[in-house]
Amino acid sequence: MKLIAGLGNPGPKYEITRHNAGFLAADRLIDAWQAIGPQISNQGEVYQATVAGEKVLIVKPRTYMNLSGRCLAPIFKFYKCEPSDLIVIHDDLDLPSVSLRIKTGGGNGGHNGLKSIDSSLGAGLLNYHRIRIGIGRPEPGSPVATVDYVLQQFSDQELNAMDLLLDKAVKAAELLIRGQAEAAMNEFNVRGK
Question: Whole-angstrom Cα distance, residue 103 to residue 98?
Fold first, then answer.
């Protein structure tokens, strides 16, 4: 079983905010793969699909970002997943706005959703795949605090660019499901892609 978690905050207030880039990507996967669902399980929406002959669960935790691990860890453990079976899609302040990078393992970069997942999974299970969607940072000298910035809505221009980026996220997820992490990194981690 492959497990994909798109991170975000539930509710219309947060729907197209930068912090919900993971939810937006999960929605695109659900549409692209004609996933069945949702079922509500462990405080999350769970959809089922088959991709490249693999059974895949797409999970949108409804616990709010900072508690994402409460939803994800029980599902991960129930299906006896390995770290290589898990793909987490999340927003990333350290990447330029509307960019995409693939990463396996490593630190959480201060991302509260990843902190929650790491804490809930426990040491030794942190070498999972990540699809990082860049949201940039507030301009230097901006009066907007980072915590407020991530909860702002994408601009119309960003949303237009995000549409193409979400298609790339589908392709990246398919490569990771096929066990082709290196190919995914080669394709999407090149500057300017």
Answer: 16
